User: Fold these one by one.
Assistant:
Number 1:
Amino acid sequence: MFKCVICKSELIEYSGIATCTFCGAKEEADYICPNGHYQCEDCRLATQSEIIERVCLNTKSKNPVDIVNLIMKHASFNAYGAEHHELAAPAILSALKNLGYVNLTAARIKGAMKRGSNIPYGSCGSTGACGASISAGIAISMFTKSNYLKDRERSLTIKTVSKALMKLTDLGGPRCCKFSTYAGIESAWNVLINDLGLNLEPLNIVCDFQDELPDCKKEKCPYYKK
Ligand SMILES: [Zn+2]
Ligand SMILES: [Zn+2]
């Protein structure tokens, strides 16, 4: 039997129109999750980059953690991998778009992903800079229109990445791309609230993948909650 990628329930036969949980498209469905989750044909076949783009372009969510949790449940996403280096930036910017703080086109989403796409797998251990932390910095860079000639914008971009990296330092290894994604988003959110004065709800991050991950640090991880 097929299982729902989102909640793992067994799919049930269905005839009618269903709405894709990933992209919001409506199509004729044969099977649906008893909890209402549905994956459209295009999302089912999407690559890692395509599913990030499809979700970020269409989501109505104002919470970047909910956005990354949905994307990370897609079948193309591995427990760990360089796909996480393209993830935090477009998710943060999409949430900011839905909160009315930015305009976000498909091209801007692609740009946010592209900036993170050259960071190789394992860069946390091989260079000291985690790709998911950098992706959070990319969101602040794009939000503030930072570049290497800017003053405060550049500092806030670097601050986002360095605060995220400190969270990784404090937790210790081995890798956890889910933790790094959450830590990066939390760091960016803190900069948006405390340094840039945005009126945002604080994030209450609980890992959606706890115990499923081979290297889960369980009680040692601040996002692990029973
Ligand atoms: Zn489901
Ligand atoms: Zn879809």
Number 2:
Amino acid sequence: MRMRQAGLAGAALAVAALAGAWQAAPALAQAGAASGTAGDVVAERKAGLKQMAGHLEAIKGILDSRGALEPVAGRATEMQRFFEGFPARFPPGSDTGDTRALPAVWSDRAGFERASANMVAALGKLRDAAAAGDAGATATAFREAGGTCGACHRNYRAR
Ligand code: HEC
């Protein structure tokens, strides 16, 4: 918790202090890096991915207990936003350090972007099914979305 607060405060400071450096490193700036270093980009994308896993877990709980589907649509929308910006969280130079991203993220960029786009599409289906209140279609779309996470991991994440 304390680290998180420090991170947010640091982000605001960094924006002010490193505006010039950001222009020199557009790829990192694009990734929304708190202080513009590769280590922060890696930490931030991993934190975001953990949140995504939390969303999936929460959605599973809702579906298992046959709860209201509206919150599922909300979570799916948040996840969609994250994955729309996903490739930008892997700028050049963020392939080292505490990361399990495989070199293919950068060497097969088109494939990685396609896998991200597939994720956005799968989450769109999930959102639509949940928003329509269709439990059966939501369950199907949920399984597909989970499979789409795994499809990318097989090719782009080290075990
Ligand atoms: C387009 C590719 C892609 C998609 C889609 C994707 N991931 Fe990942 N995921 C990765 C990569 C690459 C890593 C390794 C990131 C790193 O270590 O820098 C990763 C790592 C993770 C991690 C580990 C984070 C950590 O703390 O080390 C979790 C959890 C995760 N993904 C969950 C998910 C979930 C849940 C979904 C689906 C909703 C998903 N991912 C979809 C590529 C993807």
